[in-house]
Each structure stands twice: as structure tokens, then as C-alpha cells.
Recover the amino acids of this structure.
């Protein structure tokens, strides 16, 4: 079955004068034909949705973790796709005594669902092996109102699903900071040096009785000196 679906994608790529190797990315078609897999996903900035020339929008159901890659493939072979993306901060495991690695992770807001715009030919599941279904009703593939897509795109552009903006740290390693004057905090008024930024707060080195003592404090309890 996969050979048939891959053959259909090859034929469509050939019709547009494209090498299938330039269409395939990541763990999708590249795995089927032995192409090298990139180690890190690309970060794509949000951009206004182009609906010009699209006669109908439908919704494709993709295999897990493939929506973004399928969108790139379909764009290369004569379709217009829209995969709304969000961003969040994730933390990787620590190494030795170092703080965990902070990374901004981009993800499809609607998971396995991908909006596909038909420019000429109708979209069918057989076009890409990573598509398992098209949302349908009694009349066939169900159309999506372009105005609804525009509202989704406006929300994406406004950063509705970008929690990484809120997570940006106000301090950097080596900054001289002061614990804010809060009588409930035992280190209120102390100066300290920022050691690292962690999910649980800011790790600082406080001078206590002549010794540098590491403690972790919420970011809102600190101010730059």
C-alpha cells in the first residue's frame, strides 16, 4: 500500500518538474527512499495566510507528528497548505552540575489536522502516504470557510499560541541582582550574582557569612542592581 501511495507522490512531483528528494523531509518520504534525516526541526516564523487562487479549503488528517512536514511536501506539488504553529519552552536534561538546556519548541496547534487549499485538482488521501483521511460530510470532502482560517491566522500572528514570549527570562548569567524588599523573604535586600535560569526560578549565589551559597528564587522576586 505504501509503495502505491509513494508512487502517486512521485508522479505528482514529476509533473511539476521536481526531484522527490527535494520534496521529502525528516521522517516522512525520506525514510521510505533512504534520504538523510535532519537532526533538528526548522523553526518557521508565523506569516499571513495567502488564500489567493484557492478554490476550496479542506482538512487532512495526518499521521502523528507529520502535519508540518506534509504541509511542506504538498506546497511543492501544487497545493496551498496552512499548518497553524505555536511555540512553548521545553527543558532538556541536565549534564553534571549544569542547568537544564532551555529550548523553544514549535508545534502544530491542531495536532494531526492540516488545512489544504485546492488550487486546481481536488485533494485526495492517496496523494501523500502520510495522510490517513480527509474530513468529510454527506457531500464529500467538507469545505472550510476561508474567513474562519483568517481568524485562526490572525490569532497565530498575534502570538495566541506562543507561550515562549512569556517565558523569556529578564536576567542573564552573571547579572548583579537584588532580592526585592519583601519582609516575608529571608534574603530580602541581599545582592547576588545570577548563576543560571531554570524552570523553577533563577538560581543565584548569595554571600552568606563570607560564603557563596546557591539558592533558587522566583524571577519576580529579583531586580537588577
Amino acid at each position: 500500500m505504501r509503495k502505491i501511495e509513494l508512487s502517486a507522490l512521485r508522479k505528482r512531483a514529476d509533473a511539476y518538474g521536481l526531484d522527490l528528494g527535494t520534496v521529502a523531509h525528516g521522517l516522512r518520504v525520506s525514510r521510505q527512499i533512504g534520504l538523510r534525516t535532519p537532526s533538528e526541526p526548522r523553526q518557521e516564523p508565523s506569516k499571513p495566510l495567502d488564500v489567493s487562487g484557492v478554490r476550496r479549503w479542506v482538512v487532512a488528517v495526518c499521521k502523528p507528528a507529520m502535519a508540518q512536514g506534509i504541509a511542506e511536501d504538498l506546497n511543492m506539488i501544487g497545493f496551498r497548505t496552512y499548518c497553524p504553529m505555536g511555540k512553548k519552552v521545553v527543558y532538556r536534561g541536565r549534564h553534571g552540575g549544569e542547568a537544564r538546556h532551555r529550548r523553544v519548541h514549535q508545534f502544530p496547534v491542531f495536532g494531526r489536522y492540516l488545512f489544504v487549499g485546492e488550487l486546481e485538482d481536488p485533494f485526495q488521501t492517496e496523494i501523500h502516504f502520510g495522510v490517513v483521511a480527509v474530513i468529510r460530510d454527506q457531500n464529500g470532502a467538507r469545505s472550510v470557510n476561508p474567513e474562519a482560517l483568517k481568524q485562526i491566522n490572525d490569532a497565530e500572528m498575534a502570538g495566541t499560541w506562543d507561550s515562549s514570549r512569556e517565558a523569556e527570562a529578564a536576567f542573564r548569567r552573571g547579572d548583579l541582582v537584588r532580592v526585592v524588599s519583601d519582609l516575608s523573604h529571608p534574603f530580602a535586600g541581599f545582592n547576588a550574582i545570577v548563576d543560571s535560569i531554570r524552570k523553577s526560578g533563577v538560581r543565584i549565589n548569595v554571600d552568606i557569612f563570607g560564603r557563596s551559597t546557591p539558592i533558587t528564587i522566583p524571577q519576580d522576586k529579583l531586580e537588577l542592581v
User: Anything to note?
Assistant: The CA atoms of residues 26 and 37 lie 5 Å apart. Confidence is low (pLDDT under 50) at residues 1-5, 20-39. The longest strand covers residues 191-198.
